[in-house]
Design goal:
The structure holds two protein chains of two kinds. By secondary structure, chain A is an alpha+beta fold. Chain A folds into two domains: about 1-35; about 40-115, N-utilization substance G protein NusG, insert domain (mini-chromosome maintenance (MCM) complex, domain 2). Chain A has three helices and seven strands, in the order ααβββββαββ. In chain A, strands 2-1-7-6 form a four-stranded antiparallel β-sheet, with no helix packed on it. In chain A, strands 3-4-5 form a three-stranded antiparallel β-sheet. In chain A, a hairpin with a 2-residue loop joins strand 1 and strand 2. The longest helix of chain A is centred in the N-terminal third of the chain and has 26 residues, at about 10-35. Chain A is rod-shaped. The termini of chain A are far apart. By secondary structure, chain B is of the alpha+beta class. Chain B has a single domain (about 30-280), classed as ApbE-like domains (T-fold, Roll), CATH 3.10.520.10. Chain B is built from nine helices and eleven strands. Chain B has a seven-stranded antiparallel β-sheet, covered by helices on one side. In chain B, a hairpin with a 5-residue loop joins strand 5 and strand 6 (about 195-200). In chain B, helix 6 runs antiparallel to helix 8 (about 250-260). The longest helix of chain B has 24 residues, at about 5-25. Chain B is elongated, with a radius of gyration of 23 Å. The chains are: A alpha+beta, B alpha+beta. At the A-B interface, helix 2 of A face helix 1, strand 1 and strand 5 of B.
Chain lengths: ~120, ~280
């Protein structure tokens, strides 16, 4: 019957492959929505704008300048991120526990620096 | 050639439709985020299905300015302020004084101490605030966030917004369940990481009060930002954090504060709310 539309055997193999791909895609789509707890990257924003995105599994340290000229040191090590040093008045960002899971957020409000895990 | 064209078209259409299938399931997970410094905390808007409208920032800023008691433009007679005060009076009455919006003198003092901008307030300094009898200074920090989240419902409805708005520890979900039916909220572990998650639907709100983000440890005591009106000191109730789930963001905000200070759970039934507790070890 499909031959009447012009489907050859190769076409049917292609269709079967696409259906498998579609099913896999649908399954992956559902998993993306549920959001696993494993964080992949560190997103650093200053004043709401993304400054940089870094992989969580690469140890590094960087200095970030806040929107008012303030300075913070962001440290990524052992799949954790924290603010090691800052010159803000209250140092709440430094006191904050290290973040390691998706959705966690460390903020230096006076400098408008936000470190988020995704 | 003429006869074959329609057949190829049918094949092509079928193949294109099959290609679209896996991509369509990803569409609903797409969101945009915006961040603002408002309400003396970190405010974020997460929008599904459409970019974040500039009108949302404008509305948030409007309420931020209204309830900012430290602003020189603060107007205690503004209708929204008077309404908020009326709501706070009910909260104070229902909580037998555990909640109060009149703690401005205390919160200013402790905020300065947390920022190491002044020495530890002495007992007589704290009592002096209590007994001064002068017109109390208001501070809406404990309830303005949730109250604003509730007030924004009509505007967000008109914009067709689906998503969440978080102001500090207060979050509310909005919009059509067809665009997104549940949102996952993470409960932070005070020592780092996420302790647990809860799911909320559009129309629900969550608020957390805790002593692990705005505090100063000094000579063995944790001085934090949630002041007990009955003592004038940061509450020491054995609670590290409490997260409230409720249909009203203002109620959730109030309950998280009141239950942190006096963790009886008594108010939860009255306000049709649920609580998640983290206690001192």
């Amino acid at each position: 019957m499909l031959k009447r539309i012009g489907f050859t055997r190769n076409d049917l193999i292609l269709v079967a492959a696409l259906l498998v791909f579609a099913a896999f895609g649908a399954w992956r789509g559902v998993n993306i929505g549920v959001s696993s707890a494993v964080a992949e990257k560190v997103i650093i924003r200053v004043n709401g704008e993304v400054l940089t995105e870094l992989p969580l599994d690469e140890d590094r340290e960087l200095g970030v300048t806040g929107y008012d000229g303030g300075f913070n040191v962001v440290t990524i090590t052992n799949r954790e991120v924290y603010i090691r040093e800052a010159d803000c008045p209250d140092l709440l960002c430094v006191k904050h526990a290290p973040a390691s899971e998706r959705g966690e957020l460390i903020v230096c409000l006076p400098h408008r620096i936000a470190v988020e895990l995704e | 050639m003429k006869n074959r064209l329609p057949l190829l078209t049918v094949k092509a259409v079928i193949l294109v439709l099959l290609l679209i299938l896996p991509l369509s399931s990803c569409v609903s997970a797409k969101y945009t985020k915006e961040y603002y410094d408002l309400f003396d905390t970190y405010t974020s808007v997460v929008s599904y299905g459409m970019p974040v409208s500039a009108a949302i920032y404008a509305e948030l800023k409007y309420y931020h300015d209204l309830f900012d008691v430290y602003s020189e433009n603060f107007d205690p007679d503004a209708p929204e302020v008077r309404e908020l005060l009326r709501v706070c009076e009910k909260y104070t009455a229902d909580s037998d004084g555990v909640f109060s919006a009149a703690l401005g003198d205390y919160t200013a003092m402790w905020k300065q101490f947390i920022a190491a901008e002044r020495p530890l307030p002495t007992e007589s300094e704290v009592s002096a605030v209590k007994l001064s009898g002068t017109q109390p200074k208001y501070d809406f920090g404990a309830v303005a966030k949730g109250y604003t989240l509730d007030r924004m419902v009509p505007v967000l409805d008109e914009l067709g917004f689906s998503g969440t708005i978080s102001i500090g520890g207060s979050v509310r979900a909005y919009g059509s369940p067809k665009i997104k039916s549940t949102y996952v909220i993470g409960i932070a572990d005070p020592g780092g990481g996420i302790r647990d998650t809860m799911e909320i639907a559009p129309g629900q709100a969550v608020a957390t009060s805790g002593n692990y983000e705005r505090y100063r440890d000094y000579e063995g005591t944790r001085y934090h930002h949630i002041i007990d009106p009955r003592t004038g000191y940061p509450a020491q109730s054995g609670v590290v954090g409490v997260t409230i789930l409720c249909d009203s963001a203002a109620d959730a905000d109030f309950l998280s504060t009141a239950e942190f200070i006096e963790p009886s759970g008594r108010l939860l039934e009255m306000y049709n709310a649920e609580a998640y507790w983290i206690y001192e070890e």
